[in-house]
Amino acid sequence: MLQEPVRRVAKEANAYFAINRLVARAGYRTLADRARHTPRVADWSLPYAGVVEMMTLGTPSGTIRSADEIRAPLDRVTRLSYPTRATRRRVQFLHLAGEWVETSSSAPGRVILYLHGGGYVCGSPATHAAVTTRLADTAGARIFALDYRLAPEHPYPAAVEDAWTAYWWLLTEHGLAPEQI
Q1: Could you tell me the pTM of the whole model?
Q2: What is the model's pLDDT at position 112?
Q3: Among 79, 101, 103, 170, which residue carries the largest CB count within 10 Å?
Q4: Can you tell me the distance from the alpha carbon of 54 to that of 26, in angstroms, rounded to the nearest whole number?
C-alpha cells in the first residue's frame, strides 16, 4: 500500500527535476551563445533568449503533441505537496470558473484578481495554489484566481476577454469598487 504513494511522489519529483535540467541546459546554451557572440537574434534580452532556448529544447523534433500532453508535466509538478494554510472555494459564474483563496490574514474588502502564469497556454488556479496561498497571506487580501480559457483551443483574445469579464463580475456581483481590486 505504501508503494503507490511513494511511486507517485517519485514520478512527480522526476518531472520536477526534468524541468530543472531543461531550464539549466537552456541557460547554459544561451550563455554560451552570448559568450561566443552568436545569439539567435541580437536584439533579444538574455532572459527572453533563455526562454526561447528552453522551449526549443523541450520540444521533441518531428513529434506533434496535443496541448494536454504539453501541459501534463506542469500539472504533475504542481501536484507536489505544499502546506495548506488557505481556504479554497471553487465557483462557477457566467461561462467561467475560478477559485476564491483566503487565509487568516485576508481582509474582506481587499481582492486580488489573480491571472496565473503560463503564457495563456498552460496553468490553472491549481498549478499556482502555492503562489496564491502565499500572496493571500502576504497581501492580507482575498484572491480570486481565474481559470481562464487556454490557447490553442481558445485563441487570443479569449483569455483577455475572460479576465475582463471576471473583473466586471467582481465589480457588479460582489459590489467591489475598482480601488478594492
Answers
A1: 0.66
A2: 96
A3: 101
A4: 5
